[in-house]
Amino acid sequence: MATRNRMPPWHENFKAPSGRELLIRPIRPEDGAPLQGAFALFGPEEVRDRFLQAVDVLSDETAQRLTHPNPKTEISLVAAEPLPPGEAVVGAVARASIIPGTRDAEYAILVSRFLAGQGLGRQLMRKLVKWARGKYLDRMYGDIAQDNEPMLQLAASLGFKQVPHPSGTPGLVRMVLELGN
């Protein structure tokens, strides 16, 4: 169950059914090292589903890019322990970015296997959709491995429609939400 009570914009307390309490908030530059450290908490399947390849470590370059989003064109959120940035273990990352020259945004979500199935991905996706609507975009989409059933089901339950991937890449589908702004 998510609750809000006089917190800064885009901050939200999240209590998972397991009882674990997390803070959903915008990513901060200080989250780079904890994010890289927590990368081992993400299972090989989760990483493959998100990066569409086997990745063992989060590179300094990727951590830098994730922790320094351009506020005009992208949002990156984390679900972390309710500790100061830089000290909190990060259990999930969600990002949406406007595709230059379009009114579309691409999203990606990575949730630790320790937090999967507790509604966190749904809450993060709702926040990304809210951001995209606030930017008056036409659509939001994500590229998902065809065998990533939990993410396909989550996206479909929120109104996303499955379309063939434009590149024709086998095993990859695109989930698209028409925002109707």
TrEMBL record:
Annotated keywords: Acyltransferase, Transferase
Domain of life: Bacteria
Metal-binding recorded as keyword: no
Domain spans labelled N-acetyltransferase: 22-180
Pfam families in the record: Acetyltransf_1
Coiled-coil spans in chain: none
Name recorded for this polypeptide: Acyl-CoA synthetase
Organism for this UniProt entry: Stenotrophomonas nitritireducens
Lineage of origin: Bacteria, Pseudomonadati, Pseudomonadota, Gammaproteobacteria, Lysobacterales
